[in-house]
Amino acid sequence: MTLAPDVLALQLLTGLALGALYALLAIGLSLIFGMLTVVNFAHGAFFMVGAYVGFFLYGLTGSFWASLVGAPLAVGAVGLVVERFLVRPLYGRGLDYPLLLTFGLAYVLVEIVRILFGKQGLPFDTPEALSGAVDVWVGYFPLYRLFVIGAAAAATLAVWLFIDKTSYGLIIRAGARDPVIVRILGIDIARVWLAIFGIGAALAGFAGVLAAPLQGVAPEMGDTVLAEAFVVTVIGGMGSLLGAVVAGLLVGVTISMTSLFAPEMARVCVFALMALVLLVRPQGMFGRAGLLS
Amino acid sequence: MLTVADLNAWYGLSHVLQGVTLEIGQGEIVAIMGRNGAGKTTTLKSVMGLVDCRAGSVVFQGREILAEPTHLRFALGLGYVPEERRIVPGLTVRENLRLGLLASPNRARETLVIDHIAATFPRLKERLDQFGDTMSGGEQQMLAIARAMVSDPKMIMLDEPTEGVMPVLVDEMLSLFVELKRQGTALLLVEQNVDLALDIADRAYIMDHGTIVHHASAQSLRANKEVQERYCSV
């Protein structure tokens, strides 16, 4: 079968919009793992809670912009509480303790949302100002998806500037590589870890509210996305911001392109891509070797 | 300035510090010597709060700090240059120095402080925007010391500062230590090279099996070949 180039180009854009969401999730996962060595299995649930907070705020205020700002703030606050009271007591006990904790927490969050909003998924209307399609030269493309790409790019840029250009960022970069010297130089690393967990959760919440108009909200919406976000993190390299972005877009495009030819193969292809990358570079595309050893 | 009394520390089940007692005053250079595994590094780490100490007392600037976290000990004016140097990979020399300033009041005059340090360490000045971990071992040691100095600590603990450093840099380093002493900074020095340590130290403690076995002025220790032979020879 043959497909016109313009169809391929539009599908590529769709893949980028999907990939932008994966990148947001993977940046958070990667930051949290790179700094705290916590494999956060609640990240998909944070994404889902972000979508529901957005849904709730949208209904309450009638403003999508309010939900776009409120959802990451609310989920970030949840992240702060989770790190401070649940994850922190487990530091120094090995990888599996926080992993199991966040794994269980994800179930708790999903159940809470089911109790509050019901088991059924709910529709989330695309905001008026962002609905419709725009001419992108190769054809018409939904405006909202372009907005997702732009918003994710803006958030990523903000995180990058924060990490690369500010004093807090210097602490984060140093703390990811050597937390001991950061403590010796007088910095309370526990506060840094708290902030990182909060930022990672906020990014997941932001991705959730961005995704809501594309797919509606459902208590289980975080489950599949979590698996894909982990794949992205592994492909990009744990702890690498650039890796999260590149691999996020790559996985998004892989999914959207295979969906065009063989939809049932889309997820398989993503895992095949991961296997391929790991065969060539076990630490991922931009990861440092030996982070887990 | 610092008084350590009957300090005990454990690594798991092994009792590595068994009642260490020592003190150091303002502007003093004090050396801790002894064989590998005697507990010298652990003593410094314990004073910095990097080892779980469950018994004894560490009083710095009149304040009991045994239970205080490491970052608070820094805030009280305690600097530490660990044996591994811990130059952060992927950060430039300037960023490594800035890291030493972030928790210090000197942060407000960062440019001034870094200019001053660059004047003190010409070798670092040329390399400010180079990655710290790409420099030679001796230069990295200089950076580690400079990074501990930027916050103007009242006391600096140095673990094997001259190890693997070429002689010309060692000379630079020793004159720097003497200058720091002149400015009133206390230096607690762990050193394998006995002659070198006794050259600049006022007093020395000798450790063996996690405890202080000998304490004397540098002068009398230099003459006491028997003690040197017994506890410090390899």
Which features characterize this protein?
heterodimer; A: about 290 residues; mainly alpha; two-stranded antiparallel ribbon; 11 helices; about 75% helix; B: about 230 residues; alpha/beta; Rossmann fold; 6-stranded mixed β-sheet; 4-stranded antiparallel β-sheet; globular
Account of the 3D structure:
- The complex is a heterodimer of chains A (293) and B (234).
- With 293 residues, chain A is an all-alpha fold.
- Chain A has a domain at 9-118 and 134-219.
- Chain A is 74% helix and 2% strand.
- Chain A is built from eleven helices and two strands.
- Chain A has helices at residues 5-36, 43-61, 64-87, 96-117, 143-165, 167-177, 179-184, 189-215, 221-236, 241-261, 266-280, and strands at residues 133-135, 140-142.
- A two-stranded antiparallel sheet of chain A has the order 1-2.
- In chain A, strand 1 and strand 2 form a beta hairpin.
- In chain A, helix 1 (5-36) packs across helix 9 and helix 2 (43-61) packs parallel to helix 4 (96-117).
- Chain A is globular, with a radius of gyration of 19 Å.
- The mean pLDDT of chain A is 94.
- With 234 residues, chain B is α/β, with parallel strands linked by helices.
- Chain B has one domain: Rossmann fold.
- Chain B has helices at residues 40-48, 70-75, 93-101, 110-120, 122-125, 137-149, 167-182, 194-200, 218-223, 225-232, and strands spanning 2-11, 14-24, 29-33, 53-60, 63-64, 78-81, 155-159, 186-190, 203-208, 211-217.
- Chain B has a six-stranded mixed beta sheet, sandwiched between helices.
- In chain B, strand 1 (2-11) and strand 2 form a beta hairpin.
- In chain B, helix 3 runs parallel beside helix 6 (137-149).
- The model of chain B has no long low-confidence stretch (mean pLDDT 93).
- The A-B interface holds A 167, 170-171, 173-174, 177-178, 180-189 and B 48, 50, 69-71, 74-75, 80, 82, 86, 88-91, 95, 98-100, 102-104, 147, 151.
